[in-house]
Amino acid sequence: xxxxxxxxxxxxVEALLAAxxxxxxxxxxxxxxxxxxxxxxxxxTVTLDGEARRVHVRNEASVLGVVAALREHRNxxxxxxxxxxxxxxxxxxxxxxxxxRAVRRKTLTVENAEVVLQRFGATGLDPRMYRxxxxxxxxxxxxxxxxxxxxxxxxxxRDAALxxxxxxxxxxxxxxxxxxxxxxVTLDADTLLAWxxxxxGPRRFAELSATERAELKKWLTEVAGPxxxxxxxxxxxxxxxxxxxxxxxxxxxxxxxxxxxxxLALGGLFGQVMPRHSELAVxxxxxxxxxxxxxxxxxxxxxxxxxxxxxLDRADELADKAGLALGLTASRFLPSSFSAQLRRTxxxxxxxxxxxxxxxxxxxxxxxxxxxPDHVQAAETAVRVARWLSGPEPAxxxxxxxxxxxxxxxxxxxxxxxxxxxxxxxxxxxxxxxxRTLYEQARERRQRLDQEFAPKLAAWAAHATAQHPDxxxxxxxxxxxxxxxxxxxxAPLLLVLDGMSSAVAAQLGEEAERDGWREIVPRPEAGEIxxxxxxxxxxxxxxxxxxxxxxxxxxxxxxxxxxxxxxxxFWKRRRKAAALFHKAAIGGEAGHALSHELMTxxxxxxxxxxxxxxxxxxxxxxxxxxGTTWSLADVTHLRELLAAxxxxxxxxxxxxxxxxxxxxxxxSDTPTAAAEGAASARWRTGDAAGxxxxxxxxxxxxxxGGAVILPWREDIRYTGRRAGYHGxxxxxxxxIPVLVLLPAGEEALKDWVPLPRELSTPGWWxxxxxxxxxESAAITADQxxxxxxxxxxxxxxxAPAAEARPSARTESGPPxxxxxxxxxxxxxxxxxxxxxxxxxxxxxxxAAVVDxxxxxxxxxxxxxxxxxxxxxxxxxxNIEGFVATVQRLLNVEGYPVLxxxxxGHAVKLDVPLLREQFLPKPKDDEDEADGQxxxxxxxxxxxx
Length: 944
What we know:
eight-stranded mixed sheet, five-stranded mixed sheet
C-alpha cells in the first residue's frame, strides 16, 4: 500500500510560492508532491515581489489530470496567474513536457520545517522540533487564516511554537480577546478552565488527532499545572463544558469518611475519565481557586455573576442527580450548601447564641457570602437577636434613660426585627419558620419595654417643658443645645429627615462613616462613656407639632411657613443668618443636583436647614416595599447634600422630627382598633384609654386641647393600612436620633469627642471575637475607653441590656492582650524591624496598639484605636499615618499583620500571624507538632 501523501494547505502553498518567487517570473506552473487539503480555497491572491498574483490550486492524481489542468489554465487564466497542482505522480511519469514548464522543472517536496520557518519569519528552529513531525505538521496545518503566525524574528523555540499552536487549536485567542504583539495568550489553569466554558472550546480539542492531543496535554501539564490532565481528559470525553461543576463535586472525597456510594456516584459522573484520588484533589483545588477569583469579580460585574451562577447551578444539578447533595453540605461553593448552612445557622441561633455564632462563622466562610448580602444579613441578625435575648432583661427606669437606651441599644433591636420579619430571601420554609420564632420572642421582649415606657412618658409629659425637661433633650431644644455650639467654627448644615427612627439612623450612621464622616458627641462627664444623642418628640409624635417645634426652637405647631419663619427668627435672635429649604426648593435644574438658591446658601455663612421627606413619604405610600435597609442613596438629595457640606467645610447634623413604627401583620385596610375621636393613625381624643393605649396630657401635648390618647402597642392603628405610622407613644416613635458628623480628617470641636463605631453599636450587635482571643479579653471590648481609669457608668446612662456583664469580666489574672503587646515589642524580631523605621513610636504605644486590637477582637475603627492608646503616649492627629508607621514595624517581610479594611474605616490585626512572626515556637514544641502531623499523613498514605 502506497504511503499517504502529505497534506498541503493554503499556508504551505503560500510559503512555497514565496520561496520560489523569482522563478515565477518566467513560469506559472508549480508542481507540489502532496494532496491539497479538502475545504481549502481553490483560488486566492498572494503578493509576490510586490505584485498581486492570482493562484489556482488543483489536486490531480494522474498524468492526464495534470496535463488537462495545465491546458485549461493556459487557455482560460491570465498571464500573471499561477497554477499550483498537488499530485502524487512521480517526475518520471510526468515527463519533460510538463516538468519543463514548472518551477525548478520538478515536483517540489514540502519540507514542513522550512514552511514553519518561513511562516514564523524565524531565522532558525529549536533543534528539538526537527524530531517532532507531529508538531511541524500541526503548525503548517493550523496557521491562522487571516493574520498568520506571529513573527518571531529569531530562533523559533519549541515553547513559543507550542504556545502559538495551543492558542490556535483551542481557540484561546478568540475566547480571550486580542493577543499581544507576540500573539501569545496566558496559559494557566484559570485560562483553561475559563476556556472549558466556551461553546466550542472543548470540542475543538476533542477533534484533534490522538497524537496531537497527547502531546499538547503533556506540554500543558508542564506549563499550566497538574490540573490540566483531568480537564483535557474531560474535554476528550465530551464532558469539558462540565469540568468546573465536576471539579466542585470532587470535594466530596475530601471527607475521610466518604462512603463507597459517594465514590461510585462520582465515578458515574466522571465516567471513564475518573481520575485517581490525588489527581482529583489537585483538579478540585484548581477549580475552587478559579471560582474564588470569579466570585470576587462577580461582586462588581453582572457578566461575571452570570458566569459563576451558571457553573454553580450546574454543579448543584449534577449533585442532585447523582445523590451527592447530602455529602456536600459543607461545600464552600454550592448554592445548596449555602442554603443548608444558612438554615443551620438560624436553627442553631434559636438554640443558643454560641452555637449560632459558630455556624455563622462557617456561613461567612462560604464563597457565596459576598454575593448574597441579604442572606448573610438574615443569618447575622438571627445570631445578634439570639445574643440580645440571652442577655439580662432590660428595664425602663425613666424617660431620659429609656430614650438614650433606645437610640443606643433598643433601636438596633427594631432594626433587627425588620430583617427577621422579612424572612428568608429565598423563601425557605424551615429557615423562615425559625426566623419567625426569633422575631416573636424578640418582639415580645421589645414590646414589654414600650409597655413600661408608656406610663413613665405620661407622668413625665404632665410637667416637662423646654426649661425643665427633667434630664431629657427635648426636640425644641435641639437647635440651642446641639446645633448652636457647632457654629463656632463654621455654620452647620441641619438635615431634618422626617420620620427617621433610631433603627434607620443606625444604618445611615454606619454608611456615613464608610463614606468618610465621623460622628462626634458632647464630651461626657468624667468616667462616663460617649453615646449618641437622642431627643424626645412633642406629643403626639406627628410632623405638624414635632417638626415645627424642632425648627422654631420652641413648642409650636404649624406647616412650612411656620417652620421657615421660626427657623430664621431663632437664628436672628442669636445674630446668625439662616435659610430653610423644603422639598420644592431643594432640587436643581438640568445638570444640577441641588438648586442654585440652596448652593448659594451653603456657600455663605448662614446656618442652612433642609427638610427631607423621603422616609415619611415611604411610610405613607409603601415605596420602600419590604426592604430591610436604608442607605444614604435611598434618601433623595441626602448624598449630594453631604458632599456639598464637605466641600464647604460645614459640620452636619442629621436629626428627625419623630420616629415611626412599621406595619407588620395586618392585611386589612380597616383600622385595627375602632375608636371615636381618631384624628390620625396613632392618636385620638377621648376619655378612657383602652388596652395598649395610654392617656397623656400636659404642656408637651400640642393636640386635642392638651390631652390625647396614644397607643404604645405598634399593632394599633385608627386609620387604613399603610407601610408605617407615627404619632403614638412607643419608643420608636417618640425617640429622635441626633447625629453630628464631621469629615473624618477634621479635628473634633472643643468640648466634643469622636463617637467610634465601637461605642455607637451595642455589644450584642457586634460580631464576637475569633477563637484566637480569650473570652475575658473579648468582653472588655464593650467598654473600649482606656484614656482614663473608667468607673462603671451610672445606671441611668447605660443601656439596660448591658447592665449585667458576664462574670468573666471580674476574673483574676493579667489580661492576655497586655502580655502579647509587651512581648512583641520586646522581641528580637521587633528590634530588627525598628532599625528600618525612622522616628518609630515608643514601644509602649505600639504595645498599646496590639493590646487594644486584641482586646477588641482584632478590629477597631481608627477613631477608637486613637482613643484607646491616647493615654500611653502622643499620637499624631493623622491616625492613618500613624497606623502606616506601625505597619512598617509589624508587617515583617510584607506579611499583612496589620492593615486597613472596610475601605480604610477599620484597622485589623491578624493575631495568629502576629504570633507566628514575632513569637516563634520553641524547638521542643515544633518537634512535637511535627510528630503529631506526621501520623495522620502516614495514615492518609496507607489509606491511599
